[in-house]
Amino acid sequence: MSNSNQLQRSLGLQLVVMMVIGNIIGSGVYKKVAPMAAELGSPGWVLICWVLGGVITMFGALSNAEVAGLLADTGGEYSYYKRIYNRFFAFLYGWSLFTVIQTATIASLAYVFAQSLNSIAPLPALFGSLAEVNLAGVFFPFADFNIKFTAILLIFFLTWFNTKSVKAGAGFSTAILLLVFLGIFLIIFFGISSEQADLKSTFQLETAKDTAVTFSSVFAAMLAAFWAYQGWASIGFLGGEIKDAHRNIPRGIFLGVLAVITIYLLVNTTYLSLLPISELTAVYEAGNQIAAIEAVKAFWGSGGGFLISVLILITTLGCTNATILTSCRTYFAMAREGLFFKKAAHLNKAQVPSNSLLFQGVWSCMLVLSGTFDQLTDMIIFAVFIYYGATTFGVFILRKKMPDAHRPYKVWGYPVVPAIMILFCVALFFNTIYVRPREAGIGMILMLTGIPMYWWFTKKQQSKKTPAQQEAVNA
Protein backbone atom coordinates (compact mmCIF):
# COMPACT_ATOMS: atom_id res chain seq x y z
CA MET A 1 0.00 0.00 0.00
CA SER A 2 1.11 3.53 -0.67
CA ASN A 3 1.04 4.50 2.98
CA SER A 4 3.40 1.71 3.99
CA ASN A 5 6.66 2.90 5.45
CA GLN A 6 8.64 -0.26 4.69
CA LEU A 7 10.98 -0.90 1.76
CA GLN A 8 10.75 -4.26 -0.02
CA ARG A 9 13.67 -6.74 -0.14
CA SER A 10 13.76 -7.64 -3.84
CA LEU A 11 17.46 -7.56 -4.87
CA GLY A 12 19.54 -10.78 -4.94
CA LEU A 13 23.35 -11.26 -5.13
CA GLN A 14 23.52 -10.99 -8.94
CA LEU A 15 21.80 -7.60 -8.94
CA VAL A 16 23.94 -6.50 -5.99
CA VAL A 17 27.16 -7.26 -7.91
CA MET A 18 25.79 -5.51 -11.00
CA MET A 19 24.76 -2.48 -8.94
CA VAL A 20 28.24 -2.27 -7.37
CA ILE A 21 29.90 -2.37 -10.79
CA GLY A 22 27.26 -0.05 -12.27
CA ASN A 23 27.89 2.52 -9.53
CA ILE A 24 31.63 2.45 -10.23
CA ILE A 25 32.10 2.26 -14.01
CA GLY A 26 31.18 5.66 -15.35
CA SER A 27 33.16 8.51 -16.83
CA GLY A 28 36.47 7.76 -15.11
CA VAL A 29 37.26 4.71 -17.22
CA TYR A 30 37.30 6.96 -20.31
CA LYS A 31 38.59 10.32 -19.04
CA LYS A 32 40.92 10.05 -16.06
CA VAL A 33 43.97 8.54 -17.75
CA ALA A 34 44.62 11.98 -19.35
CA PRO A 35 44.98 14.06 -16.13
CA MET A 36 47.04 11.23 -14.62
CA ALA A 37 49.39 11.29 -17.61
CA ALA A 38 49.70 15.08 -17.38
CA GLU A 39 50.51 14.87 -13.67
CA LEU A 40 53.07 12.03 -13.86
CA GLY A 41 54.56 12.19 -17.35
CA SER A 42 55.16 8.43 -17.42
CA PRO A 43 52.97 5.55 -18.68
CA GLY A 44 54.49 3.13 -16.17
CA TRP A 45 53.71 5.45 -13.26
CA VAL A 46 50.15 5.93 -14.53
CA LEU A 47 49.62 2.16 -14.37
CA ILE A 48 51.25 2.01 -10.93
CA CYS A 49 48.78 4.63 -9.70
CA TRP A 50 45.86 2.62 -11.14
CA VAL A 51 47.16 -0.44 -9.27
CA LEU A 52 47.70 1.53 -6.03
CA GLY A 53 44.24 3.06 -6.38
CA GLY A 54 42.76 -0.40 -6.90
CA VAL A 55 44.60 -1.88 -3.91
CA ILE A 56 43.55 0.95 -1.58
CA THR A 57 39.99 0.72 -2.91
CA MET A 58 39.96 -3.02 -2.21
CA PHE A 59 41.32 -2.44 1.31
CA GLY A 60 38.50 0.03 1.90
CA ALA A 61 35.96 -2.31 0.34
CA LEU A 62 37.07 -5.28 2.48
CA SER A 63 36.85 -3.15 5.63
CA ASN A 64 33.47 -1.76 4.61
CA ALA A 65 32.24 -5.28 3.87
CA GLU A 66 32.82 -6.37 7.48
CA VAL A 67 30.86 -3.40 8.81
CA ALA A 68 28.11 -3.82 6.20
CA GLY A 69 27.79 -7.54 6.91
CA LEU A 70 27.35 -6.83 10.62
CA LEU A 71 25.08 -3.77 10.45
CA ALA A 72 23.39 -3.95 7.02
CA ASP A 73 20.40 -1.58 6.82
CA THR A 74 18.89 1.08 4.56
CA GLY A 75 21.05 4.19 4.50
CA GLY A 76 24.46 2.47 4.40
CA GLU A 77 27.09 4.30 6.43
CA TYR A 78 24.44 6.62 7.90
CA SER A 79 22.95 3.63 9.71
CA TYR A 80 26.38 2.21 10.57
CA TYR A 81 27.70 5.47 12.07
CA LYS A 82 24.84 5.69 14.54
CA ARG A 83 26.02 2.39 16.01
CA ILE A 84 29.75 3.10 15.66
CA TYR A 85 29.91 6.78 16.66
CA ASN A 86 26.81 8.82 17.42
CA ARG A 87 23.74 10.41 15.88
CA PHE A 88 25.50 13.71 15.09
CA PHE A 89 28.34 12.12 13.12
CA ALA A 90 25.84 9.96 11.23
CA PHE A 91 23.87 13.07 10.31
CA LEU A 92 27.00 14.91 9.20
CA TYR A 93 27.79 12.01 6.88
CA GLY A 94 24.27 11.95 5.44
CA TRP A 95 24.32 15.71 4.96
CA SER A 96 27.73 15.43 3.23
CA LEU A 97 26.23 12.88 0.84
CA PHE A 98 23.48 15.34 0.01
CA THR A 99 25.58 18.49 -0.33
CA VAL A 100 28.74 17.05 -1.90
CA ILE A 101 29.41 13.37 -2.34
CA GLN A 102 26.48 11.73 -4.11
CA THR A 103 24.84 14.78 -5.65
CA ALA A 104 28.14 16.01 -7.11
CA THR A 105 28.72 12.48 -8.43
CA ILE A 106 25.36 12.60 -10.20
CA ALA A 107 26.19 16.06 -11.54
CA SER A 108 29.62 14.93 -12.82
CA LEU A 109 28.27 11.84 -14.57
CA ALA A 110 25.42 13.75 -16.19
CA TYR A 111 27.94 16.37 -17.33
CA VAL A 112 30.04 13.76 -19.15
CA PHE A 113 26.89 12.26 -20.68
CA ALA A 114 26.06 15.68 -22.12
CA GLN A 115 29.65 16.16 -23.36
CA SER A 116 29.48 12.80 -25.16
CA LEU A 117 26.12 13.63 -26.70
CA ASN A 118 27.56 16.94 -27.90
CA SER A 119 30.48 15.12 -29.57
CA ILE A 120 28.01 12.94 -31.49
CA ALA A 121 25.43 15.59 -32.36
CA PRO A 122 26.54 19.15 -31.52
CA LEU A 123 24.10 20.82 -29.16
CA PRO A 124 22.87 24.34 -30.01
CA ALA A 125 24.59 27.12 -28.08
CA LEU A 126 22.60 28.61 -25.21
CA PHE A 127 23.17 31.95 -23.45
CA GLY A 128 26.57 32.40 -25.08
CA SER A 129 26.57 36.11 -24.19
CA LEU A 130 26.40 35.21 -20.49
CA ALA A 131 29.32 32.75 -20.55
CA GLU A 132 31.61 35.11 -18.61
CA VAL A 133 29.10 35.84 -15.85
CA ASN A 134 30.65 34.47 -12.65
CA LEU A 135 30.59 34.33 -8.88
CA ALA A 136 33.93 35.31 -7.28
CA GLY A 137 35.77 34.23 -10.43
CA VAL A 138 35.19 30.57 -9.44
CA PHE A 139 31.68 29.65 -10.59
CA PHE A 140 30.62 30.24 -14.22
CA PRO A 141 27.02 28.93 -14.32
CA PHE A 142 26.34 29.90 -17.96
CA ALA A 143 29.64 28.68 -19.44
CA ASP A 144 28.93 25.72 -21.77
CA PHE A 145 25.28 26.10 -20.82
CA ASN A 146 24.13 23.81 -23.64
CA ILE A 147 26.11 20.99 -21.97
CA LYS A 148 24.86 21.86 -18.49
CA PHE A 149 21.22 22.18 -19.58
CA THR A 150 21.37 18.73 -21.21
CA ALA A 151 22.87 17.28 -18.01
CA ILE A 152 20.04 18.82 -16.00
CA LEU A 153 17.43 17.31 -18.32
CA LEU A 154 19.05 13.88 -17.90
CA ILE A 155 19.01 14.15 -14.09
CA PHE A 156 15.32 15.05 -14.05
CA PHE A 157 14.42 12.24 -16.48
CA LEU A 158 16.28 9.54 -14.51
CA THR A 159 14.91 10.90 -11.23
CA TRP A 160 11.39 10.50 -12.62
CA PHE A 161 12.20 7.03 -14.01
CA ASN A 162 13.44 5.79 -10.64
CA THR A 163 10.21 6.78 -8.91
CA LYS A 164 8.55 3.85 -10.74
CA SER A 165 10.19 0.95 -8.84
CA VAL A 166 13.57 -0.07 -7.42
CA LYS A 167 13.66 -3.28 -9.47
CA ALA A 168 12.98 -1.42 -12.73
CA GLY A 169 15.84 0.98 -11.98
CA ALA A 170 18.22 -1.87 -11.07
CA GLY A 171 17.21 -3.90 -14.15
CA PHE A 172 17.79 -0.88 -16.40
CA SER A 173 21.29 -0.40 -14.96
CA THR A 174 22.09 -4.11 -15.45
CA ALA A 175 21.00 -4.06 -19.11
CA ILE A 176 23.15 -1.00 -19.78
CA LEU A 177 26.10 -2.54 -17.94
CA LEU A 178 26.08 -5.58 -20.23
CA LEU A 179 26.39 -3.24 -23.23
CA VAL A 180 29.22 -1.41 -21.48
CA PHE A 181 31.10 -4.67 -20.83
CA LEU A 182 30.81 -5.57 -24.50
CA GLY A 183 32.07 -2.16 -25.63
CA ILE A 184 35.03 -2.06 -23.23
CA PHE A 185 36.16 -5.58 -24.12
CA LEU A 186 35.99 -4.69 -27.84
CA ILE A 187 38.27 -1.70 -27.16
CA ILE A 188 40.72 -3.89 -25.22
CA PHE A 189 40.77 -6.72 -27.78
CA PHE A 190 41.03 -4.65 -30.95
CA GLY A 191 43.17 -1.95 -29.37
CA ILE A 192 45.90 -4.21 -28.00
CA SER A 193 45.93 -6.41 -31.12
CA SER A 194 46.17 -3.42 -33.51
CA GLU A 195 49.38 -2.42 -35.31
CA GLN A 196 49.34 0.96 -33.58
CA ALA A 197 49.63 -0.57 -30.10
CA ASP A 198 53.05 -0.46 -28.40
CA LEU A 199 52.68 -2.54 -25.24
CA LYS A 200 56.35 -2.26 -24.26
CA SER A 201 56.08 1.52 -23.91
CA THR A 202 53.25 1.27 -21.37
CA PHE A 203 55.61 -0.03 -18.67
CA GLN A 204 58.31 2.65 -19.01
CA LEU A 205 58.93 4.58 -15.77
CA GLU A 206 60.96 7.40 -17.35
CA THR A 207 59.06 10.70 -17.32
CA ALA A 208 58.46 12.71 -20.48
CA LYS A 209 60.51 15.66 -19.23
CA ASP A 210 62.93 13.52 -17.23
CA THR A 211 61.64 15.04 -13.98
CA ALA A 212 61.22 13.15 -10.73
CA VAL A 213 57.84 11.74 -9.77
CA THR A 214 56.99 13.20 -6.34
CA PHE A 215 54.84 12.02 -3.45
CA SER A 216 52.36 14.84 -4.14
CA SER A 217 52.15 14.11 -7.86
CA VAL A 218 51.37 10.45 -7.13
CA PHE A 219 48.60 11.48 -4.73
CA ALA A 220 47.25 14.02 -7.22
CA ALA A 221 47.16 11.34 -9.92
CA MET A 222 45.47 8.95 -7.53
CA LEU A 223 42.72 11.53 -6.96
CA ALA A 224 41.83 10.96 -10.60
CA ALA A 225 42.03 7.17 -10.24
CA PHE A 226 39.85 7.24 -7.13
CA TRP A 227 37.14 9.08 -9.03
CA ALA A 228 37.08 6.15 -11.46
CA TYR A 229 36.85 3.70 -8.51
CA GLN A 230 34.33 5.82 -6.58
CA GLY A 231 30.84 4.43 -5.96
CA TRP A 232 31.37 0.91 -4.61
CA ALA A 233 30.02 1.76 -1.14
CA SER A 234 26.71 3.01 -2.53
CA ILE A 235 25.22 -0.49 -2.46
CA GLY A 236 24.97 -0.12 1.33
CA PHE A 237 22.29 2.53 0.83
CA LEU A 238 19.99 -0.23 -0.46
CA GLY A 239 20.51 -2.47 2.58
CA GLY A 240 16.79 -2.56 3.34
CA GLU A 241 15.97 -3.75 -0.19
CA ILE A 242 18.53 -6.58 -0.52
CA LYS A 243 17.74 -10.22 0.20
CA ASP A 244 19.95 -11.68 2.95
CA ALA A 245 21.76 -8.34 3.10
CA HIS A 246 24.26 -9.38 5.80
CA ARG A 247 25.75 -11.94 3.40
CA ASN A 248 25.02 -10.48 -0.04
CA ILE A 249 26.38 -6.96 0.57
CA PRO A 250 29.92 -8.13 1.55
CA ARG A 251 29.98 -10.65 -1.31
CA GLY A 252 28.67 -8.12 -3.80
CA ILE A 253 31.21 -5.46 -2.79
CA PHE A 254 34.18 -7.84 -3.04
CA LEU A 255 33.19 -9.38 -6.38
CA GLY A 256 32.19 -6.05 -7.91
CA VAL A 257 35.37 -4.18 -6.92
CA LEU A 258 37.60 -7.07 -8.05
CA ALA A 259 35.92 -7.09 -11.48
CA VAL A 260 36.35 -3.31 -11.86
CA ILE A 261 40.05 -3.35 -10.92
CA THR A 262 40.69 -6.00 -13.58
CA ILE A 263 38.78 -4.08 -16.25
CA TYR A 264 40.52 -0.77 -15.44
CA LEU A 265 44.02 -2.22 -15.66
CA LEU A 266 43.29 -3.82 -19.03
CA VAL A 267 41.59 -0.81 -20.62
CA ASN A 268 44.13 1.75 -19.36
CA THR A 269 46.99 -0.41 -20.60
CA THR A 270 45.22 -0.27 -23.98
CA TYR A 271 44.98 3.55 -23.92
CA LEU A 272 48.64 3.94 -22.94
CA SER A 273 49.76 1.53 -25.66
CA LEU A 274 47.94 3.60 -28.30
CA LEU A 275 48.64 7.19 -27.18
CA PRO A 276 52.00 8.58 -25.99
CA ILE A 277 52.11 10.69 -22.84
CA SER A 278 52.44 13.90 -24.89
CA GLU A 279 49.14 13.23 -26.68
CA LEU A 280 47.35 12.33 -23.44
CA THR A 281 48.64 15.54 -21.87
CA ALA A 282 47.32 17.51 -24.86
CA VAL A 283 43.93 15.83 -24.43
CA TYR A 284 43.86 16.93 -20.79
CA GLU A 285 44.92 20.49 -21.59
CA ALA A 286 42.29 20.79 -24.33
CA GLY A 287 39.61 20.41 -21.66
CA ASN A 288 36.82 19.25 -23.98
CA GLN A 289 38.39 16.01 -25.26
CA ILE A 290 38.07 12.45 -23.92
CA ALA A 291 41.13 10.18 -23.85
CA ALA A 292 39.22 7.02 -24.81
CA ILE A 293 37.84 8.64 -27.97
CA GLU A 294 41.30 9.71 -29.11
CA ALA A 295 42.73 6.24 -28.36
CA VAL A 296 40.05 4.43 -30.38
CA LYS A 297 40.51 6.87 -33.28
CA ALA A 298 44.14 5.72 -33.40
CA PHE A 299 43.11 2.28 -34.72
CA TRP A 300 39.50 2.69 -35.91
CA GLY A 301 39.57 6.25 -37.26
CA SER A 302 36.68 8.71 -37.01
CA GLY A 303 34.13 5.88 -37.17
CA GLY A 304 35.68 4.37 -34.07
CA GLY A 305 35.50 7.78 -32.39
CA PHE A 306 31.76 7.83 -33.04
CA LEU A 307 31.29 4.32 -31.62
CA ILE A 308 33.23 5.09 -28.44
CA SER A 309 31.24 8.31 -28.00
CA VAL A 310 28.05 6.23 -28.11
CA LEU A 311 29.56 3.78 -25.60
CA ILE A 312 30.47 6.62 -23.22
CA LEU A 313 26.96 7.94 -23.60
CA ILE A 314 25.52 4.55 -22.63
CA THR A 315 28.01 4.07 -19.76
CA THR A 316 27.40 7.43 -18.12
CA LEU A 317 23.65 6.98 -18.59
CA GLY A 318 23.82 3.68 -16.68
CA CYS A 319 26.11 4.97 -13.94
CA THR A 320 24.04 8.14 -13.47
CA ASN A 321 20.94 5.99 -13.16
CA ALA A 322 22.56 3.62 -10.63
CA THR A 323 23.82 6.54 -8.53
CA ILE A 324 20.44 8.27 -8.52
CA LEU A 325 18.73 5.01 -7.59
CA THR A 326 20.95 4.18 -4.59
CA SER A 327 21.83 7.57 -3.12
CA CYS A 328 18.41 8.87 -2.15
CA ARG A 329 17.82 6.02 0.32
CA THR A 330 20.05 7.69 2.91
CA TYR A 331 17.98 10.88 2.95
CA PHE A 332 14.86 8.72 3.28
CA ALA A 333 16.36 7.00 6.35
CA MET A 334 17.35 10.39 7.84
CA ALA A 335 13.92 11.88 7.22
CA ARG A 336 12.21 8.98 9.01
CA GLU A 337 14.17 10.00 12.10
CA GLY A 338 13.45 13.72 11.77
CA LEU A 339 16.98 14.57 10.60
CA PHE A 340 16.11 15.62 7.07
CA PHE A 341 13.25 17.41 5.38
CA LYS A 342 10.06 15.65 6.50
CA LYS A 343 8.64 15.06 3.01
CA ALA A 344 11.70 12.94 2.08
CA ALA A 345 10.32 10.16 4.31
CA HIS A 346 7.33 9.60 1.98
CA LEU A 347 7.05 6.38 -0.06
CA ASN A 348 4.94 6.45 -3.22
CA LYS A 349 2.67 3.68 -4.51
CA ALA A 350 5.69 1.78 -5.87
CA GLN A 351 7.30 1.82 -2.38
CA VAL A 352 9.97 4.22 -3.64
CA PRO A 353 11.13 7.37 -1.73
CA SER A 354 10.03 9.71 -4.53
CA ASN A 355 10.40 12.98 -2.60
CA SER A 356 13.91 12.04 -1.52
CA LEU A 357 14.71 11.46 -5.20
CA LEU A 358 13.32 14.90 -6.03
CA PHE A 359 15.36 16.74 -3.37
CA GLN A 360 18.48 14.94 -4.59
CA GLY A 361 17.75 15.77 -8.23
CA VAL A 362 17.24 19.49 -7.62
CA TRP A 363 20.51 19.93 -5.70
CA SER A 364 22.41 17.83 -8.26
CA CYS A 365 21.23 20.24 -10.96
CA MET A 366 22.48 23.19 -8.91
CA LEU A 367 25.91 21.54 -8.73
CA VAL A 368 25.91 21.02 -12.51
CA LEU A 369 25.77 24.80 -12.80
CA SER A 370 28.46 25.37 -10.18
CA GLY A 371 31.64 24.02 -11.75
CA THR A 372 33.61 21.95 -14.21
CA PHE A 373 33.88 18.17 -14.28
CA ASP A 374 37.35 18.01 -12.71
CA GLN A 375 36.43 20.54 -9.99
CA LEU A 376 33.46 18.41 -9.00
CA THR A 377 35.35 15.09 -8.98
CA ASP A 378 38.29 16.36 -6.90
CA MET A 379 35.82 17.82 -4.39
CA ILE A 380 34.00 14.48 -4.18
CA ILE A 381 37.14 12.42 -3.54
CA PHE A 382 38.34 14.82 -0.84
CA ALA A 383 35.00 14.50 0.96
CA VAL A 384 34.37 10.78 0.51
CA PHE A 385 37.75 9.64 1.83
CA ILE A 386 37.04 11.31 5.16
CA TYR A 387 34.18 8.87 5.58
CA TYR A 388 35.98 5.88 4.05
CA GLY A 389 38.50 6.36 6.84
CA ALA A 390 35.72 6.68 9.44
CA THR A 391 34.05 3.44 8.28
CA THR A 392 37.36 1.59 8.30
CA PHE A 393 38.13 2.85 11.80
CA GLY A 394 34.70 1.48 12.71
CA VAL A 395 36.06 -2.04 12.16
CA PHE A 396 38.32 -1.57 15.21
CA ILE A 397 35.55 0.05 17.27
CA LEU A 398 33.01 -2.69 16.52
CA ARG A 399 35.52 -5.44 17.32
CA LYS A 400 35.72 -3.84 20.79
CA LYS A 401 32.02 -2.98 21.20
CA MET A 402 30.57 -6.18 19.74
CA PRO A 403 33.29 -8.86 20.05
CA ASP A 404 30.87 -11.79 20.11
CA ALA A 405 28.49 -10.63 17.36
CA HIS A 406 28.08 -12.88 14.33
CA ARG A 407 30.09 -11.50 11.39
CA PRO A 408 29.20 -13.07 8.00
CA TYR A 409 32.52 -11.63 6.78
CA LYS A 410 35.71 -10.60 8.60
CA VAL A 411 38.18 -8.30 6.85
CA TRP A 412 41.20 -10.13 5.46
CA GLY A 413 44.53 -9.05 6.95
CA TYR A 414 43.11 -7.50 10.11
CA PRO A 415 44.48 -5.29 11.68
CA VAL A 416 47.06 -4.39 8.99
CA VAL A 417 44.68 -3.89 6.03
CA PRO A 418 42.25 -1.50 7.78
CA ALA A 419 45.19 0.33 9.43
CA ILE A 420 46.80 0.98 6.02
CA MET A 421 43.47 2.26 4.69
CA ILE A 422 43.07 4.70 7.59
CA LEU A 423 46.62 6.05 7.23
CA PHE A 424 46.08 6.52 3.50
CA CYS A 425 42.83 8.43 4.06
CA VAL A 426 44.61 10.80 6.45
CA ALA A 427 47.45 11.35 3.96
CA LEU A 428 45.04 11.96 1.07
CA PHE A 429 43.05 14.47 3.18
CA PHE A 430 46.06 16.67 3.88
CA ASN A 431 47.61 16.25 0.44
CA THR A 432 44.38 17.34 -1.26
CA ILE A 433 44.30 20.49 0.88
CA TYR A 434 47.85 21.16 -0.33
CA VAL A 435 47.45 20.40 -4.07
CA ARG A 436 43.73 21.24 -4.57
CA PRO A 437 42.96 23.90 -1.92
CA ARG A 438 39.95 25.37 -3.76
CA GLU A 439 38.16 22.03 -4.22
CA ALA A 440 39.01 20.96 -0.66
CA GLY A 441 37.77 24.29 0.72
CA ILE A 442 34.46 24.21 -1.15
CA GLY A 443 33.87 20.60 -0.15
CA MET A 444 34.64 21.31 3.51
CA ILE A 445 32.33 24.36 3.62
CA LEU A 446 29.43 22.39 2.13
CA MET A 447 29.94 19.52 4.59
CA LEU A 448 30.19 21.85 7.59
CA THR A 449 26.83 23.45 6.78
CA GLY A 450 25.57 20.23 8.38
CA ILE A 451 26.39 21.61 11.84
CA PRO A 452 23.72 24.37 11.87
CA MET A 453 21.33 22.08 9.98
CA TYR A 454 21.66 19.40 12.67
CA TRP A 455 20.85 21.99 15.31
CA TRP A 456 17.81 23.11 13.28
CA PHE A 457 16.44 19.59 12.70
CA THR A 458 16.93 18.52 16.34
CA LYS A 459 15.31 21.73 17.57
CA LYS A 460 12.28 21.00 15.38
CA GLN A 461 12.12 17.48 16.80
CA GLN A 462 12.24 18.70 20.38
CA SER A 463 9.52 21.29 19.79
CA LYS A 464 7.15 18.50 18.69
CA LYS A 465 7.74 16.29 21.73
CA THR A 466 5.35 16.26 24.64
CA PRO A 467 6.74 17.22 28.08
CA ALA A 468 6.65 13.51 29.07
CA GLN A 469 8.64 12.47 25.98
CA GLN A 470 11.21 15.23 26.53
CA GLU A 471 11.61 14.19 30.17
CA ALA A 472 12.20 10.58 29.07
CA VAL A 473 14.89 11.70 26.59
CA ASN A 474 16.63 13.81 29.24
CA ALA A 475 16.50 10.94 31.69
Automatic annotation (TrEMBL):
Bilayer disposition of the protein: Multi-pass membrane protein
InterPro entries the record matches: AA/rel_permease1, AminoAcid_Transporter
Pfam families per the UniProt record, alphabetical: AA_permease_2
UniProt entry keywords in alphabetical sequence: Membrane, Transmembrane, Transmembrane helix
Major location (coarse): membrane
UniProt keyword Membrane, yes or no: yes
Transmembrane segments: 12-30, 42-62, 88-113, 133-158, 170-192, 212-232, 253-274, 306-332, 352-373, 379-399, 411-434, 440-457
Keyword Membrane part of the UniProt annotation: yes
Record's subcellular location: Membrane
Protein's recorded name: APC family permease
